[in-house]
Amino acid sequence: MEVLKRDQNMIPKPKRVVDKKAIEEARKPYCELCGCRDGVQVHHIKSKGSGGGDTPENLISLCWVCHRKVHDGLIKRETLRRGENEI
Ligand SMILES: [Zn+2]
Ligand SMILES: [Zn+2]
After folding, report:
1. pTM for this one?
2. From ligand 1's centre to the CA of 52, what distance in Å?
3. Distance CA 49, CA 10 (A)
4. From ligand 2's centre to the CA of 42, what distance in Å?
5. Which residues have CB less than 5 Å away from ligand 2 (the ion)?
6. How far is ligand 2, taken at its centre, from the CA of residue 8, in Å?
7. Are 22 and 56 contacting, i.e. CB atoms less than 8 angstroms apart?
8. Domains of the chain: which residue ranges?
């Protein structure tokens, strides 16, 4: 049972839907942390579950290595944020 009946009359929630345009605009051909060009992916600095959105400030291009480190907690979120929190 994937769809609950009571949901049928409701406006479908944009659950996990990604704003592709915003992401394509944020996408860079290189990693913004190390400059590497291997397997660059756009990462949400603040996860959608935490209230983050598909805004340029919340998106960063990371190579797969840095991306994995971020998800493993080896790179702090503060490190990713540009402009706002300069250390
Ligand atoms: Zn990198
Ligand atoms: Zn990510």
Report:
1. 0.72
2. 21
3. 21
4. 7
5. 43
6. 31
7. yes
8. 19-80
